Amino acid sequence: MTDMSNGSASNANGETSWPLWEVFAQSEAGAPHEHVGSIHAVDAESALQNARDVYARRGNVVSLWMVPSDAIIASRPEDSGSLFEPGEDKIYRHPQFYKVPRGMKGF
Amino acid sequence: MQTAAPPAGEEQRLAAFEARLDAGETIEPKDWMPDRYRTQLIRMMSQHAHSEIVGMLPEGNWITRAPSLRRKMTLLAKVQDEAGHGLYIYCGTETLGIDRQELVEQLLSGKAKYSSIFNYPTLSWADMGVIGWFVDGAAIVNQTVLAKTSYGPYARAMIRICKEENFHKRQGYEIVATLARGTPGQRAMIQDAVNRWWWPSIMMLGPSDTNSPNTAELLRWRVKRKTNDELRQRFIDITVPQAQAVGLTLPDPDLKLNEETGHWEIGPIDWDEFWAVVKGNGPCNHERLEARNAAHDNGRWVREAATAYAAKRASATSASVAA
Amino acid sequence: MMTVRAAEPLDVATLAETDRATLAEYLQRLGDDRLVLGHRLSEWCGHAPILEEDIALGNIALDLIGQATRALELAGETEGKGRNADRLAYFREAVEYRNLQLVELPRGDFGYTIARQFFFDAFSVHFLDALRQSSYAELAAWATKALKEDRYHLRHSSEWMLKLGDGTAESHARVQRSVNELWRFTGEMFMDDAVDERMAQLGIVPKPSTLRAQWNTVVTDVLSRAQLERPTHEFFAHGGRTGRHTESLGHMLAEMQIVARSHPDATEW
User: Under 8 Å CB-to-CB from C203, ≥6 apart: which residues?
Assistant: First the structure.
């Protein structure tokens, strides 16, 4: 497969496959953007339009982010032990660890 | 909680993998998985996606003839949903390391399978009702269970699809009920459609368990959660009372309720017909593939234009950055 | 630019009978334009060049058919002869339809569909924008909602005009041919007749001729950026507004109406 500088590649038919984008949608103001899926599109404008048509048909979307898939840096599963497990037993980071007299306001 | 780095050695990896599945964990794209799990999933997911796409054709056939504005819009929305579902699942399949273009190529060349039901023709408006009722009904029985499948991207696509699919079956049954209480002409139309679609819909849930070699493995890996026969029985038990409620008969003289088990028992299924359709000799197999190939070929110049346009913009941008 | 006087709200019940009939006629034009165009777009479903366009064109078709349904409902109510939107859509002959000829033309290839859509969208956004000031509240509300939808349609069709016009040599040639063939159908959108004059007098609608300049600006800009030539011939076809259609409409309606007409005594579907 020949690689082209715009992130697409051509397949056996000679047709270029379009870059992949990950789509994040915000359901209402103040909510976080959540990953809803991915789409193929040639450029940012098409990506936005396609994402809108595919993921926002039923309302419940007030904002969309499109990110080229290869721009996403992800943690590797094999590192998850050292990256994330130490956080699981540091219970002093959770409010429930600390005792406060019952009925005390402001906590 | 994920395990730490997978132990060396294929057997140990496999054991760790299966332990994760037994614990009800979800497998994500970057996790280690046996090659066979990967290939089975690609096969299953791509077949599902192809089915959604090909499924647009029998129903798309009646959009331009829908007999009321409301029916026109709801049918168009339904077929559009099917395109969207195909897209979600193609994207999910790509996480397993295969390109969407390759998947499309497999469909167009006839190498890939899709659900046998879409190789039947839609011959009257009433077919739109029956397809929503039987075909989407059977699909829902299958899919609600798939929402708990072990592979993350597939499960997430399925949850999304199930939410959207609810309207499909209701829309179908509403058409059925309306026709069943309509004019004699409308009633005849819907009964005829039921007579043609009942058996193919029953077969849609796949070959009987004794003839389904993939099932055991897929169950062990929690890709499939129920057997074909279990799903088939469920579909029948749900659907028969729905037919009775609107005064329609099902084309099966042997259909009867087993009072003890509470299940509806059916007559013999013509598996020869099923295998003929699966092998490419159903009523519409050729037409379906021709239609998809035509759309693809006729659209090539459009896709190439979009690619060329984007490439021109990209090189213009990098040229101006370099300057 | 507003071309409708923000007049006092119109009470349809107080309209003279001839004006009521004229308004009903006008509403049929609006509904027919969008129903016929929506129908033509819906023909692409399952056959588009890429799956994403099956969805996109489907969305646009749905918007248009939804707008048409509302306009035809209003037409039936205004007419007061007991015809609802379905009755109007499925039981009128081609000569009774009041749509522009532009929208009834067969869908052609993807470039033809896009060019036709672009020409209509460029007209529609300005038309609806002006219609928001209509003295007829129902129509103003209809236009406000439809405008949001049509703005997106224009964005979609403009973008494809650019991609096809400035894509490959083949796409350029195809879409240029489509632009040339469609050009003579773009004049009808801006022709005034007695119905338009009377509706404008009542503050209900903008006169079509007042929208031509804005349309020209948009079209000239997009064609130029798409590396497409703007045709120069100035003879424009017309007749759709009075039921003088091209031969395409009859075939389209035959297909659209066949099931409904085969069961004329059916009361529900």
Answer: C4, C5, C6, C7, C8, C10, C134, C135
Strand partners, A26: A33, A63
Q: What's the gap in Å between the CA of A15 and the closest CA on chain C? A: 13
For residue A15, the model assigns a pLDDT of 76
Average pLDDT over residues B15-40: 91
Q: What is the pLDDT of residue B71?
A: 97
d(CA C100, CA C102): 5
- Coil vs helix vs strand at A14: coil
Q: Please answer yes or no on whether C167 and B309 come within 8 Å at the CB atom.
A: yes
Residue contact B310–A43, C-beta within 8 A: yes
Tell me what the mean pLDDT of segment B93-116 comes to.
93
User: What pLDDT score does A9 carry?
Assistant: 52
Q: Do A46 and C159 touch (CB under 8 A)?
A: yes
Dist CA B149 CA B147 (whole Å): 6
Give the tokens for residue C88. 């109007």
Q: What is the 3-state secondary structure (H, E, C) of C101-156?
A: HHHHCCCCCHHHHHHHHHHHHHHHHHHHHHHCCCCCHHHHHHHHHHHHHHHHHHHH
Name the CA radius of gyration of chain A, rounded: 22
Tokens of B233: 């029985």
What are chain C's domains? 15-231+238-262 (1.20.1260.10)
Q: In the predicted model, what is the mean pLDDT of chain C?
A: 96
Cβ–Cβ < 8 Å for B179, C263: no
ipTM: 0.95
| Type and span of the H or E element at B289 | helix B285-298
Going B210 to B212 to B214 to B216, the CA torsion angle's sign is negative
Determine the average pLDDT of the residues in B187-192: 98
pLDDT band at A11 (very low <50, low <70, confident <90, very high): low
Task: Report the pLDDT value the prediction gives residue B4, as an integer from 0 to 100.
Answer: 54
- Is residue B130 predicted with pLDDT exceeding 80? yes
Q: Does B1 touch chain A (CB under 8 A)?
A: yes
CA–CA separation, C207 and C126 (whole Å): 12
For residues A4 and A22, the answer to whether their CB atoms sit within 8 Å is: no
- Given pLDDT bands bounded at 50, 70 and 90, which one contains residue C182? very high
Angle at B61 between CA B57 and CA B66, to 5 degrees: 135
- Give the residue on B whose Cα is nearest the Cα of C44: B60
- Of C52, C152, C156, which has the smallest distance from its Cβ to A54's Cβ? C52
Residues of B within 8 A of A80 (CB-CB) are 2, 4
**Contacts of residue C258 in chain B, CB cutoff 8 Å?**
65
Q: Does residue C142 have a pLDDT over 50?
A: yes
Contacts of A49 in chain C (CB under 8 A): 56, 155-156, 159
Q: Which of A42, A45, A53 sits opposite C56 (nearest CB)?
A: A53
Put simply, the answer to whether C55 touches A54 (Cβ < 8 Å) is yes
B100–A40 C-beta distance less than 8 A: yes
- Facing B101 at nearest CB: one of A11, A57, A88: A11
Q: For A15-39, what is each residue's pLDDT tens digit?
A: 778 999 999 999 999 999 999 988 8
Tokens of C263: 């069961």
